[in-house]
Amino acid sequence: MNTSPLYRALLRTAWIAGAFCVLVGGIMVYEHFEAATNDPWKSPQLLALREKLAADPKNEPLQKEIRQLDLKFRRNFRHRLALDNTGAWLLLGGTLALVLAAAKAAALKKTLPLPQPKPDAGEQSIKLASRARWSLAGVGLAVAGCLLIIGLGNTSVLPGSRDAWQKLLSPPSAQEAPIAEAPVLAEFQANWPRFRGWDGSGTAAWDLKTMPGVLWRSVIPAPGHSSPIVWGDRVFISGGTTNRREVFCYNASSGALLWQRAIENVPGSPLKIPETPEDTGCAAPTMAADGRRVYAIFANGDLGALNFDGSVVWTKYLGPVKNPYGYAASLAVWGDNLLIQLDQGETRPEGSKLISLQGGSGRVLWERSRPVPASWATPIIIDAAGKTQIITLADPWVIAYTLADGNELWRAQLLENEVVPSPVFAGGFVLLVSPGAKLMALRPDGTGDVTKTGVAWATEENVPDIASPVGIGELVFTVTSGGVATCFGANDGKKIWETNLDTEVQASPGILGDRLFILGEHGALVTLQAGRELHEMGRTQLPDKFDASPAFANGHVFLRGVTNLYCLGAADAKLAKQP
Amino acid sequence: MKPEFELFDRREFFGVVAKTAAVIGLAGGAEAGAEGQGTANPFAYDISRFQKTDPKLIAYEEVTRWPIPHKDARRLAIGPDDQLYVCAGNYINCLSRTGQRGLELALAGPACCVAVARDGAIFAGLRDHIEVFDSKGGRVARWESPDPKTWFTGLAAGGNDVFAADARKLVVLRYDRTGKIAGRIGRKDAARNVPGFIVPSPFLDVIIHRDGLLRVNNPGRHRVEAYTFDGDLEGAWGKPTAAIEGFCGCCNPIGLTALADGRIVTCEKGIPRVKIYSASGEFESVVAGSESFPENAHACTDLNDCIHGGIDAAVDSDGRIYILDIVTSDVRVMKRKG
Amino acid sequence: MDAKPPVNGSVTRRQFLRNGARLMTMTGLGVAAGALATRSTGAAWVWQIDPAKCLRCGNCATQCVLEQSAVKCVHAYAVCGYCQLCTGFFWPEPNELTTAAENQLCPTAAIKRTYVEDPYYQYSIDEQLCIGCAKCVEGCNRFGNGSLFLQIRHDRCLNCNECAIARTCPGEAFRRVPVEHPYLLKTTSR
Amino acid sequence: MLRRLKFVGALGVMLLLALMVCAEQRFPPPDFENGYRLPSASTPAARQLWLQYADAGVLLAALGISVWLIYKKRSRRGLFWLSLFSLAYFGFYRKGCICPIGSPQNIVYGLFNPDYVVPATVLVFCFAPLVVALFAGRAFCAGVCPQGALQDLVLIKPVAVPLWLEQALSVIPYLFLGAGLIYAGTGTGFVICRYDPFVPFFRLSGGVFILTAGAAFLMAGMFVGRPYCRFLCPYGGLLRLASLVSKWRVRVTPDFCTQCRLCEQSCPFGAMREPAPSGTNPKWLWAERKRLGWLLALLPVLVAAGMWAGSKLSPAAAQLHPAVALAERYTRQQSHPVQYGLMTPESLSLQRAAEDPKAVLTAAADLRHRFDLACWLFGGWIGLVIGLKLVALSVRPGRTDFEPDRGACLACARCFAACPNERVRLGLMPAAGDPAPS
């Protein structure tokens, strides 16, 4: 070991310089982390004192304490900056000394090269080269592996492929295109696109000729009171509970469950939804379809649009719905407009509104606030007095709006307490029910306040409180929840006949051809002659409870029971397989 | 939905592995040091405490709300027959109680303020002059201001006087019904110990209170000052604080109106809120807190500073308060609760 | 002088390849440099903050490579309202309108408040103390005329090729400005 | 044309109006009575433009001196003092930026980003060392680069790095170069500058992460010669490629080599190559030629594999771009909302994105397409680098003397002193006997 004094001196200076650098470095690192709490803006102590001062402003000692503490922290902060600056230069000087001393010491101990004979130089270089090649191949593999791992572990939520981007970036324009070939009115009439048929009248023109029998029956996986809607060979119903709400699609001829899709992750919709009253449940509003999409709304304010294949087009949260018994007004659809009567509020109006959306994109076309509390009736759209009018019922106002821009046409103060039965347009009149009080016929051609002038006739006999009326030609039929069916004259309101079906009735009656179908709550399907003479044509008992109104489409009657969906048709049709 | 019991699904598992691999990989190495810092900003200017109003204090609720015909609104006033006069853009619109559009006065320049006398005469304050219209909308007279740099931002029409608040020359001019200037109120005057107005942004307002005194807001001093018709300062109240009982920011209140029983309604911007004080200045209740003016509050937060915010209020004969939101250009009708 | 001068004066194959490659690289570099040179205006760039885009997020105080950030608050006196209660100087809930520590918003007391005349006060920034945290900028913009704003001070800034703050700025407020006009001052309140 | 003029005119008027409205809303400053005059904001000037041109001049001069010291004067001491000067001037005075190592990013950013004009000084700093390397090898690394000088200074006891490890590690500079250029081209940022371990020392301040990295490199630099230059510096990769085809090359001996092997261990950077025995043994020759054939055939396969692996990288690599990161956070926020603190960068940027989400997403889409292409190229580049290195290792160099490897040699002139002929040239040794005829 070369122990010349110079070498030992150099070694010692190197060690001292090294220790000095480590010391200064240590102090600076300590200062850096220790400052985490006592900088003037970060120190929790100072913030707490300020909160206390805000509570009682005149506290002198507290003010003095804050000022001293603030000054101390600010002085520490300046001190720390100065320390860092000098520390940096000290570190620089220290490392310079360390390096020079060490380099000089190493230079002293430098051994001169003594090349030894290398007999196998050739083979060695070839062996080294091949090992180098293998290590290079190893590096290549490692890098490729890294690339793949990073690629696979990609937690990016943005779409990967180009067309996924297209869909993300241009949802609205994509919908504009199919507007051109929106289904024509006849197609709406041929199907059952919304609650009680295309115009909400509960009637269908074709006839069944014989008493219908059950063709198939399918289990409904989720509870709900929404009526079935039918388009083409598909039947759609909605169901759900507070933690999951879904849309189900069945094949109309076989009853097979084609798909079910949950309406979830609706932007803005709270995860935990408030309890809805048990008898209404979450899925009371009936869905709507416009030939390209189906729309479903639920009691917690979630609204979803789905394609016929079940893929979600758009979802929207309409805000918390404050409805004492649970929101139940069904959706209405006309061309590409989707209408929602969102009435809210216990006894006073709380943000009730009528919203018109564009079906394709969910864009709000217009929105009108309504001076009414919560209601449960479904709006209907009629062509009367040269305008397409939307008739809405609520307590106390019946209001008509124009479909195009939602301006108010006329209003009448005729209703009170819980308005459940929906309006019907029959015999040139708008028939509306003030539950348990009056059945009235209103002329839809007025403007402004028509409370006194608009009512054609009114009757207090056998007024329904839940089921909506149904009319055909000159006759109007109603059913009370106690089971009393009555027939009135459409132009004068005179009672023609009445009968007691001795079964409670929740569902609204419907007319198929010339048969009046009344669906009892405990499964009794009663068929009466829809004419001036009372004549019961038949009664079948179904093993279920029924609250939802029937749907008539492509030759069948669809009924939604509490547990099953039933399809009834002409008895001689071949008995489809039971699922 | 991801079942809870599973620690994390396949994609996240690969995410974790990728993060470790990424740290050694180049792309990842770069990412390690790049992203901003933790979830808290130690320098955040936190006034969220003042943006939530104690529900017990809120005494009014919104009945309805309708948009106003033009953008760029500034002031509104109530006429004798409860008609609403809104000045927005170069127009003054008269709206019925239900928001239907009635009379529209087109003016040469931006309409800054409006007042309607008991006999129906409409006084429209433009930047530097006042135009007088009869109740049918016919132009009757044009009153010039004494100084070209005048900027009228508040008008009050009394029996036989009209008071015009000039935010630029910091004075309230007193006109008589013929248009002659009968006096100047509020100018800095040590002898009459009037401290003078501080008006950093163009919001000076004047109302004629039922107790016969004027009420003028002094936004820079965060006070409401009471003056006689001849300009003697009778008293002033107001405390500069963001807390609910004071006036927040650099220059509030920006709008005044009075209820039938003499209580005063104040409007503030920055933290947009409308409050009610007793005639002598004790804080009483809140008409609408900052949470019901989200767009207005936002107008002051993002990039442009607070010159686009602002609110004005007016009261009709049966106590309903109409609040004009300058940012959303709509009028809200507030009715006392219960 | 290559390893061993070629015997017959002709150029060896390896050397020919090398000359060809060199020529190609030279032309490549020439083309790239030419393309860029035609657009180059001889100017050089320095970093600056656009006050209209600054979101006052506090990154300027913590992300700069320098211990004490090169970003400071600058006061546009022409825009200032000289308010007695300056919301950039005082806490939102000031105890009273004095320069006592408990009323001041600035964590390092870098704003000097001097009386001009009733009722006006002048507010000026002490750059030694300011750490560029933008608390006063937010206060002034939120309630006042917005006369306080952040700027990079070019007597302190090292002009890194990629500014460490620009990388994490949420408002993308940093951009390169010519060396001769290194500031984006606020003259009117926009 | 006229239509567009009308449109621009209308736009102008509208803007003027908007300004007028805003300005009209705002008051001019209050008019003071006591003669107070508005102070004006101080605007200290940035570093003068001519100083930057002076830096470019100093760079060219230093390069000239370095070439002269290596080829004419052949003086190690001269290079040592030149590197000290460079450390002081380019490092501690100029604080590093914009240095040749970072400048390729500015060039690529300028090429792919029309609104960034590359300053002339950056062109000089990027191309001058490369052009010099095309003629005289890595003269820049020898004495002009401050980072190199700093590591040279701390080199105490060089340890030889085994060839297989050196070859493996020397792939990293090209990875870093590739990543740096694709991130610059796509406008993400300058990662080479961001992760330069020595610039914080010149600035005397920096983040804890980067300072510890710098200290670690210096510690390593005491025993492994210039670790950053050999195993990480991307510009070093470019200079290495340029010096492979340089006109002149550094030679240990001033005239001829007697294979005395005295200079074999003299190179601290492992760049010394001994003469390769002529390939007379047929057994070896045939195997080598077959291997070379296979490796050349493997090259396109490696490039294709690299491209495939690279394309997988694009979504992850794109997340580094602030605009793509914002779009990711915005989309993730829609499905799983996260509560960020008040006025934190994340919440503020989300607020800004919420004002016009479509623009944010379209921008992210364009960037993702650019990243797809860039990562595809990056993968191919890695495959190419590895393929070429494998080929280079299986080609038999015809060497007769001890001479430094063209690419690896940093022209630090340490090996000159080890050569007896050099000592003779310097007159330190008498000429021993007659030299072998050349």
Strand content of chain C: 15-25%
Give the overall silhouette of chain A: elongated
Outline the low-pLDDT stretches of chain A.
173-180, 573-579
Quaternary assembly: heterotetramer
Q: Please identify which CATH superfamily of the largest domain in chain A we are dealing with.
A: YVTN repeat-like/Quinoprotein amine dehydrogenase
* Order of neighbouring strands in the sheet with most strands of chain A: 1-28-29-30-31
Into which percentage range does the β-strand content of chain A fall? 25-35%
- Rg of chain A, rounded, reads 40 Å
- Main β-sheet of chain A, in a few words? 5 strands, mixed
* Helical percentage of chain A: 25-40%
* CATH fold-level topology of the largest domain in chain A: Methylamine Dehydrogenase, Chain H
Which regions of chain C contain 5 or more consecutive residues with pLDDT less than 50? 1-6
Task: Walk me through the structure.
The complex is a heterotetramer of chains A (579), B (338), C (190) and D (438). Chain A has 579 residues and is α+β, with helices and mostly antiparallel strands. Chain A has 2 domains: 5-105; 184-570, YVTN repeat-like/Quinoprotein amine dehydrogenase (Methylamine Dehydrogenase, Chain H, 7 Propeller), CATH 2.130.10.10. Helix content of chain A is 26%, strand content 30%. Chain A has a 5-stranded mixed β-sheet, with no helix packed on it. Chain A has a 5-stranded mixed β-sheet with strand order 15-16-17-18-22, with no helix packed on it. Chain A starts with a helix and ends in a 9-residue tail after the last strand. With 338 residues, chain B is mainly beta. Helices cover 9% and strands 38% of the residues of chain B. Chain B has helices at 10-24, 26-34, 294-301, and strands at residues 60-67, 73-78, 84-88, 91-95, 101-106, 113-116, 122-125, 129-133, 139-144, 152-157, 161-166, 171-176, 181-185, 206-208, 214-218, 223-227, 233-237, 255-258, 264-268, 273-277, 283-288, 311-315, 321-325, 330-336. Chain B has a 4-stranded antiparallel β-sheet, with no helix packed on it. Chain B has a 4-stranded antiparallel β-sheet with strand order 2-3-4-5, with no helix packed on it. A 4-stranded antiparallel β-sheet of chain B has the order 6-7-8-9, with no helix packed on it. Chain B starts with 9 loop residues before the first helix and ends with a strand. Chain C is α+β, with helices and mostly antiparallel strands. Chain C has 2 domains: 1-40; 45-178, no CATH class. In chain C, strands 1-6 form a two-stranded antiparallel ribbon. In chain C, strands 2-5 form a two-stranded antiparallel ribbon. In chain C, strand 3 and strand 4 (120-125) form a beta hairpin. The longest helix of chain C has 27 residues, at 13-39. The model of chain C is unreliable at 1-6 (pLDDT under 50). Chain D is globular and about 100 Å long. Chain D has helices at residues 2-25, 49-73, 76-93, 103-112, 120-136, 139-144, 146-154, 163-169, 172-185, 191-194, 199-203, 208-223, 227-231, 234-244, 282-318, 322-335, 345-355, 357-394, 420-426; strands at 272-273, 403-404. Chain D has 2 domains: 56-276 and 401-426, no CATH class; 284-394, no CATH class. In chain D, strands 1-2 form a two-stranded antiparallel sheet. Chain D is an all-alpha fold and 438 residues long. Chain D contains 19 helices and 2 strands. The chains are: A alpha+beta (579), B mainly beta (338), C alpha+beta (190), D mainly alpha (438). Chains in contact: A-B, A-C, A-D, B-C, B-D, C-D.
